[in-house]
């Protein structure tokens, strides 16, 4: 699984002042000298203000309301209509104190209003306040975008893992097979460690197995894949795969919990002989009730049986398991071929 820590962009306070009076620009610059890391840019040309804002990316804009050749209220609206500055805090600077002017500025999209030239403490306090809120918003949006990107990566990798797990499931039996078999794969909301399989270990012996790894997620799926591949490829040493109890003992040795982050799996493993119509099976960790439906299925495949109760079981968590294979035989069996 790909996991990349989210690293947010480091941001400082950046102030853009739009004012036609250079003396105001210098006064504001001196007021902000004491703020560590602050970046300041002065724009005396209102026509260039939007371009300056796009390139500078300020955390707060100070804008004069009365400038030659431009309507200050319309400039506020222009900043709000520009996607690059639509959410940037904007403080209007004006010599006008009339409530109607202030209301018009706020209606156009201003966040704050200062009568110039304000006191240094007030200017610094308002710049810090608006910049901090804006930077927090930028970091939140950046974190959401990063999380969304990571979620897409995780979902893609989980889909690939689920596809691989599904590729390990057995093919359905062809028409005319001695043991008809079909199945459907229905995904759940999370990746898990459930799996099953069947394959012929001889012309007349069919191995059938079902296992369930504890928990969910990639770890459970990987352990399930390892166990299924071990069974399917018959890689357990000193193990006769036609004897279910030996298979479970071999799996118990091969997959100790201590080496798999505390994870374990329960398993049902059976051998069906098409010539004798007998099923020999062993259950490791499966409670009898949990496997009853599968046992019933096997009895039907075998052509009927007097009873179907496991006489021995083991949980792979426990050392020195006592494992037995259970035989299910059809009453009055015959050797005339498969059903």
How does this model look, in words?
The chain is of the alpha/beta class and 339 residues long. It has 2 domains: 14-143, Rossmann fold; 168-329, 4-Layer Sandwich (Phosphatase 2c, domain 1), CATH 3.60.40.10. The protein contains 8 helices and 12 strands. It has helices spanning 22-31, 49-56, 72-81, 99-108, 120-167, 218-233, 244-254, 288-302, and strands at residues 14-18, 39-43, 60-64, 66-67, 70-71, 90-94, 112-115, 192-202, 205-216, 265-273, 278-284, 326-329. The strands form 3 sheets. Strands 2-1-3-6-7 form a 5-stranded parallel beta sheet, with helices on both faces. Strands 8-9-10-11-12 form a 5-stranded antiparallel beta sheet, sandwiched between helices. The longest helix is centred in the middle third of the chain and has 48 residues, at 120-167. The protein is rod-shaped. Residues 304-323 and 329-339 have low confidence and may be disordered.
Topology:
Elements: E1 14-18, H1 22-31, E2 39-43, H2 49-56, E3 60-64, E4 66-67, E5 70-71, H3 72-81, E6 90-94, H4 99-108, E7 112-115, H5 120-167, E8 192-202, E9 205-216, H6 218-233, H7 244-254, E10 265-273, E11 278-284, H8 288-302, E12 326-329
Parallel strand pairs: 1-2, 1-3, 3-6, 6-7
Antiparallel strand pairs: 4-5, 8-9, 9-10, 10-11, 11-12
Oligomer: single chain
Rg over CA atoms, rounded to whole Å, is 37 Å
Helix-residue proportion: 25-40%
- Taking pLDDT < 50 over at least 5 consecutive residues as the criterion, the unreliable ranges are 304-323, 329-339
CATH architecture assignment of the largest domain: 4-Layer Sandwich
Main sheet: strand order: 2-1-3-6-7
Mean pLDDT across every amino acid position: 81
The end-to-end distance, rounded to whole angstroms, is 47 Å
| Beta-strand fraction estimate | 15-25%
**CATH fold node name of the largest domain:** Phosphatase 2c, domain 1
Q: Say which CATH homologous superfamily of the largest domain is assigned.
A: PPM-type phosphatase domain
Overall geometry: rod-shaped
CATH C-level name of the largest domain: Alpha Beta
What is the chain-wise order of helices and strands?
A: EHEHEEEHEHEHEEHHEEHE
Number of strands: 12
Give the tally of structural domains: 2
Q: Summarize the main sheet.
A: 5 strands, parallel
């Amino acid at each position: 699984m790909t996991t990349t820590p989210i690293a947010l962009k480091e941001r400082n306070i950046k102030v853009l002042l739009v004012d036609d009076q250079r003396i105001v620009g210098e006064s504001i610059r001196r007021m902000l000298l004491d703020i560590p890391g602050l970046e300041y840019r002065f724009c005396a040309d209102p026509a260039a203000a939007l371009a300056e804002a796009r390139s500078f990316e300020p955390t707060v804009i100070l804008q004069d309301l009365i400038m030659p050749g431009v309507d200050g209220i319309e400039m506020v609206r222009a900043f709000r209509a520009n996607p690059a500055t639509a959410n940037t805090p904007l403080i209007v600077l004006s010599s006008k104190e009339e409530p109607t002017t202030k209301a018009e500025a706020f209606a156009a999209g201003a966040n704050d209003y200062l009568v110039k030239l304000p006191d240094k403490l007030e200017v610094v306090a308002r710049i810090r306040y608006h910049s901090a809120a804006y930077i927090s918003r930028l970091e939140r949006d950046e974190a959401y975008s990063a999380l969304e990107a990571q979620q897409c990566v995780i979902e893609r990798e989980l889909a690939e893992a689920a596809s691989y797990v599904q590729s390990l499931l057995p093919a359905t039996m062809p028409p005319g097979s001695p043991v008809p078999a079909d199945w459907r794969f229905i995904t759940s909301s999370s990746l898990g460690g459930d799996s099953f399989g069947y394959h012929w270990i001889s012309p007349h012996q069919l191995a059938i197995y079902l296992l369930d790894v504890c928990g969910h997620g990639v770890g459970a799926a990987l352990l399930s894949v390892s166990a299924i591949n071990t069974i399917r490829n018959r890689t357990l040493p000193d193990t006769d795969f036609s004897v279910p109890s030996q298979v479970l003992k071999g799996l118990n040795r091969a997959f100790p919990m201590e080496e798999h982050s505390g994870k374990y799996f329960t398993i049902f493993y059976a051998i069906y002989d098409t010539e004798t119509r007998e099923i020999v099976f062993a259950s490791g960790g499966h409670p009898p009730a949990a496997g009853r439906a599968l046992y019933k299925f096997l009895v039907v495949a075998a052509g009927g049986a007097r009873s179907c109760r496991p006489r021995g079981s083991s949980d792979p968590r426990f050392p020195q398991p006592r494992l037995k294979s259970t035989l299910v035989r059809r009453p009055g069996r015959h050797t005339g071929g498969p059903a």
